[in-house]
Automatic annotation (TrEMBL):
The lineage of its organism: Eukaryota, Rhodophyta, Stylonematophyceae, Stylonematales, Stylonemataceae. PROSITE patterns: TIM_1 (PS00171), TIM_2 (PS51440). This is Triosephosphate isomerase. The keyword GTP-binding does not apply. CDD domains: TIM (cd00311). One of its GO terms (biological process) is glycerol catabolic process. It comes from Rhodosorus marinus. PANTHER family: TRIOSEPHOSPHATE ISOMERASE. Pathway: Carbohydrate biosynthesis; gluconeogenesis; Carbohydrate degradation; glycolysis; D-glyceraldehyde 3-phosphate from glycerone phosphate: step 1/1. Belongs to the triosephosphate isomerase family. It catalyses: D-glyceraldehyde 3-phosphate = dihydroxyacetone phosphate. Its EC number is 5.3.1.1.
Length: 249
């Protein structure tokens, strides 16, 4: 699976232009890849109408529960009602931006509620540079993953994204070996703490400075089941990243 996270970017005009380019995507009938685009919530409906069905649409956040007097928020019910299938939850920018500071607990609440309302959920985890340098990569990712795993009863609609924070928007992509090492560790954790079946079936995407230049090597790693792409998903050659998974298993 390949996701494009447009973050807080886009105008009507830039989205029309980008969607026209993305609409040229042709995948073989046996293509083994799902594609999801997550524009801002404001642009989600417009993006849905501009892209062919091969693209699924997501948003980048949702509220922790039922809607109501929560100024500025969007509930899982609203997202579902608009025909949007996916929601990204717990992106590092929401975990770490000082005015947001979403906790593991908040993220777990969002995951549980969005799944209950029938959305497909892409929770994100990943360590900071200082955590990696302190040898805490596995500890941090396990903690974040545990909070999510405790909130999930059925993994069918969950795709996990591993996004090391030091690789996001920095151009410092994880090496294929670094990505593979963490993905394999996460899968082993899921096998030990959830089930062997879930570990085998759950897709774990890598995110952080993925581009048309580095996607090929990363896609060959056995435990890297796809990408969640930021900056490079705002450009027409995002299609190259999608196609790196066209025939990968
Ligand atoms: O945060 C990301 C996707 O969610 C990754 O962003 P970049 O691809 O711009 O590094």
């Amino acid at each position: 699976m390949v996701g494009g996270n447009w973050k807080c970017n886009g105008t009507k005009e830039s989205i029309e232009t980008l969607c026209a380019s993305l609409s040229t995507l042709e995948l073989p009938s046996d293509a083994n890849v799902e594609v999801m685009i997550a524009p801002s919530s404001l642009h989600a409906t417009m993006t849905r109408s501009l892209l062919p069905e091969v693209y699924q649409i997501g948003v980048q956040n949702c509220w922790t529960g039922k809607g109501g007097a929560f100024t500025g928020e969007s509930s899982a019910e609203m997202i579902k009602d608009l025909g949007i299938d996916w929601v990204i939850i717990g992106h590092s920018e929401r975990r770490h931006l000082p005015i947001l500071k979403e906790s593991d607990e908040t993220i777990a609440q969002k995951v549980a509620y969005a799944l209950e309302k029938g959305l497909k959920v892409m929770p994100c985890i990943g360590e900071l540079l200082e955590e990696r340098e302190a040898g805490k990569t596995n500890e941090v990712n396990e903690r974040q993953l545990k909070a999510i795993a405790d909130a999930v009863t059925d993994w069918t609609n969950v795709v996990l994204a591993y996004e090391p924070v030091w690789a996001i928007g920095t151009g410092k992509v994880a090496t294929p070996e670094q990505a593979q090492e963490v993905h394999a560790h996460l899968r082993a954790w899921i096998s030990d703490n959830v089930s062997v079946e879930v570990a085998q079936s759950v897709r774990i995407l890598y995110g952080g400075s993925v581009s048309p230049k580095n996607c090929e090597e990363l896609s060959k790693q056995p435990d890297v089941d796809g990408f969640l792409v930021g900056g490079a998903s705002l450009k027409p050659d995002f299609i190259t990243v999608i196609k790196s998974y066209e025939t990968s298993s």
